[in-house]
Amino acid sequence: MLVTEFSTEVVEAPERFALWKEATAQLPCNRLRSNDRDDFRAKVRVLGLGEVKVCAAAFPHLEVMQTAKMIR
């Protein structure tokens, strides 16, 4: 069992949204927009159980966009 945690609070407030975008860049929905860009406080915890991963995330308003190309 492997637990991984990530928090944007490791950097100063103006850098938090950029850090979140960088950390989630590998996800298929990587076009993000938020009303809280100036102080984006986000946390994610992933529990690895072999081939299964359980994820708990907390963040303020976040709009996730996918283009048709991303969906394909």
Helix and strand layout, with pairings?
Blueprint: E1 2-7, H1 16-23, E2 31-33, E3 43-49, E4 52-58, E5 63-65, H2 68-71
Antiparallel strand pairs: 1-3, 2-5, 3-4
Can you tell me about this structure?
The protein is α+β, with helices and mostly antiparallel strands and about 70 residues long. The protein is built from 2 helices and 5 strands; from the N terminus they run βαββββα. The chain has helices at about 15-25, 70, and strands at about 1-5, 30-35, 45-50, 50-60, 65. The strands form 2 sheets. Strands 1-3-4 form a 3-stranded antiparallel beta sheet, with no helix packed on it. It has a two-stranded antiparallel sheet with strand order 2-5. The longest helix has 8 residues, at about 15-25. The radius of gyration is 13 Å and the shape is flat.
Spatial strand arrangement across the major sheet = 1-3-4
Q: What percent of residues are in strands?
A: 35-45%
Note the quaternary state here: single chain
Straight-line distance between termini: 33 Å
Radius of gyration: 13 Å
Q: What profile does the largest beta sheet have?
A: 3 strands, antiparallel
- Helix and strand sequence: EHEEEEH
Q: Which regions are unreliable across 5 or more consecutive residues at pLDDT < 50?
A: none
What class, by secondary structure content?
A: alpha+beta
Mean pLDDT over all positions? 86
Number of helices: 2
The best one-word shape is: flat
